[in-house]
Amino acid sequence: WSWHEAAESPESDLTTIRQQLAQRQRPGDYCKIVAWADRHEQAMRALRLLQQEDSGRLVAFAQGPGSRTARLWALALGSAWSYACWRGEATAPGQWSEHELPERKNWQDLDLHGVFGDPIEHSRSPELWMTAFRAEQVLARCRQEAAPRPAHYARVQHARLEDFRLDYAAPAFRAFSVTTPLKEQALAVADEASPLAQQVGAANFLRRLDDGRWRAEQTDGAGALAALTEQGLPESAPILLIGAGGAARGVAAEVLRRGRRLGVAARRPDAARAMLADLAERGLQGARDATV
């Protein structure tokens, strides 16, 4: 049994459609449900079905401009199969070619990671993290240690995160980096947050804890200052921060925590002043003395 959503109406009730197909399904039958996704959030509707399914006889994924990441994730979440094309011969929007897919004997042992943002195609995080994952595997073999679980890291275009807990309930989802414009939302959707993330009011990392809950972390500031220090930034030098978004909040907070003088330049001075006022309310000394 097969059902495909039309591109003109990508908001169908997929749960009801799955129930209707299940009523017709006989022993040995498979059901295929393909959603249309202009954006990744729409593709996640099909993956929710897989997270609720335990029959092993559901094929669910999405096609369309926003479907690429979800097509691979569908296999890790239990889709009975998916589709790929020969190199350079895609037959549907968002389709992977066979040489691009990771070689897997068991897709369901794959841990899923990614970077959330909008826009996100410019991010080099997948190259960085996939290199790190491969290095971990090599080091484990060299040391004759148990290999870490195989992992995949993808770009994930999200403009909002209000459905985060519903979309990412499956244990296969392990951790996500978070970039513009989602860092304040990331703090809001987490079950708990590090003291620094709470103080900053924004998070750049979400990780699943052993009990299944999500924890928000904030490493923007420490990372930025470590990079500047490596390049020779003197300990007493003042910092001029350009921008007043989620990443800027983390950097500003770390600068103030270290007792440095801070200046903020932003296209919207009111946004910079509002950020500093909020950081002052959160107890960061020196925020009221920063210049805009």
Secondary structure topology:
Elements: E1 2-4, H1 14-24, E2 31-36, H2 40-51, E3 58-63, H3 68-76, E4 84-85, E5 96-97, E6 111-117, H4 125-142, E7 151-157, H5 164-167, E8 173-178, H6 183-189, E9 192-193, H7 195-200, E10 205-208, E11 214-217, H8 220-230, E12 239-242, H9 246-257, E13 262-265, H10 269-281
Parallel strand pairs: 1-2, 2-3, 4-5, 6-7, 6-8, 9-11, 12-13
Antiparallel strand pairs: 8-10, 10-11
Helix pairs in contact: 2-3, 8-9
Task: Describe the model.
This protein has 292 residues and is an alpha/beta fold. The chain has helices at 14-24, 40-51, 68-76, 125-142, 164-167, 183-189, 195-200, 220-230, 246-257, 269-281; strands at residues 2-4, 31-36, 58-63, 84-85, 96-97, 111-117, 151-157, 173-178, 192-193, 205-208, 214-217, 239-242, 262-265. Strand 1 (2-4), helix 1 (14-24) and strand 2 (31-36) form a beta-alpha-beta unit. The chain is elongated, with a radius of gyration of 22 Å.
Quaternary class: single chain
What class would the helix/strand composition place it in? alpha/beta
Count the beta strands.
13
Reading the helices and strands in chain order gives: EHEHEHEEEHEHEHEHEEHEHEH
Strand order of the largest sheet: 7-6-8-10-11-9
What would the principal axes of the Cα set say about the shape?
A: elongated
**DSSP helix count?**
10
Q: Mean pLDDT, rounded to whole units?
A: 92
Helix fraction by DSSP (H/I, runs of at least 4)? 25-40%
Approximately how much beta-strand content do the residues carry? Answer: 15-25%
Radius of gyration, taken over Cα atoms and rounded to an integer in Å: 22 Å
- pLDDT < 50 runs, ≥5 residues: none
CA(first)-CA(last) distance: 62 Å
Describe the main β-sheet briefly. Answer: 6 strands, mixed
